[in-house]
Amino acid sequence: MRLAESVAFGSMTIGAGWPALMAYAEVEFEMGLFTTTRAHGCLLRCWALPVSALLLGACTDALPTDVEGYAERCLKLNVERLPLTPDDPHVGEKNVYACNVTASQLIDGDGAPIRPYPEGTLIVKEAFRDGQRDPWLIALMRKGGGAWQWAEYTRNFADQDFAELPISDSVCTDCHRQVEPIDWVFTPFSNR
Fold first, then answer.
1. Cα–Cα dist 22/5, whole Å
2. Of 60, 86, 120, 175, which sees the most CB atoms within 10 A?
3. Which CATH class is domain 65-182?
4. Shortest CA distance to 76 belongs to which of 50, 64, 94?
């Protein structure tokens, strides 16, 4: 009997550098064993159920408590959900929030963005799969000591807790380096 199910793994490295970059994977189960995995258009083969346990067991800490309630207490940088772009590693539409800052710290009187972001700024990016109301991914940038710290959290279903993905900062900085001159943040604050 075959059962197709969608699973989100995020980006991680397994074992001795074996990459498992699967922001959104379609997995077919056949009698308890993985038979085929399709991720970002790549066909991968997984040979046994223990591989899935390794992937899911690699997730660690839960979403930090200071992130809870971000959508109500933080400034939403974008007006409408941001669409998926071809080179985007975070599948789905997104909203981006800046926490622990005021609008006057992000934009000057003429409407120009203020950079760099102040110490203590927390950037929260949430990603939504097609047709879903609840985010499946939370990506964080936390400014401290003049530098950004990076983390990603994911879940498969809205009733699950988020779990941190064990990724290195370079996974994030390699992409965000494009916007290093504007303090590593892609989404500008849209003054409304």
1. 14
2. 175
3. alpha beta
4. 94
